[in-house]
Amino acid sequence: MNNGKGNNKRGSSNGKPGFGPKKSSAAGKPNFKKDDRKSNFSKPKPDFEKKPKAPKAAASDDIRLNKYISNSGICSRRDADIYIQSGNVKVNGEAITEMGYKVKPGDVVNFDGTVITPEKKEYILLNKPKGFTTAGDGDGNTANVLDLVRNATKAKLQSVGRMDKSTTGLLLFTNDSDMVRKFTAPNQRSSKVYQVTLDRNLKFEDLEKIQKGLTIDNFRVYVEEISYIENEPKSEIGLKMKTSNVKVVRSIFEHLEYDVIKVDRVVFAGLTKKNLPRGNWRFLTDQEIINLKNI
Q: What is the pTM of this model?
């Protein structure tokens, strides 16, 4: 900033280009053209750099309408598109049918007659004890797993997958409908590890059958790994597979005429029971959330 003012007669081209040469234009056109080119090139450049910054900052606060609806816990983005196309969604009192419409901060969104707001996404991991079920109706005498995490947040949570009252272990809760759909889809890719207790020792030939894959009710069922639990009776089995449906785990052994005494999910999509006693819950860390979304 100190260079180019007073120390160099040609410094006007670095300070206020164009002003010096205009006064001495008769001294020769080359100087005028040189400085004029610098003036025309250098002055618009800061304006060009500044202009995109403002809209970028504003655009980051905008959110696609279908995502806004999904974040509110109403339905998935795909289902939200259907509601939008049918004219059931209004923004600031005006029906919106445009796919990709973006909601701005302060906009009022009305979904099928009700004003909605997106909730902060919550992710809670529970080490489920016996005696609680994910079933909505239950049997009247069985408590619901939501009772265990009810005081964790005001957000409307749902469990990722189902568990009966006798199954224990890791169960994820969230108000992120996209996350729920992702981990309950038939083609989801995350691995789960189950420890299964049987009424009797698992025969080695049956273990091999399970490893090769079984056909149950006309469906082919595959596992990633199966083994006996080290230093435990051969009725204690470790099973790794992608399904979050505990019924599938039970059906594998019941198909071979074993009674399943207990199923405990010890790993869910990379999450473990470390430092999480039975019946306790915790919020996922930011990194754990990122990991789940990248699976």
A: 0.65
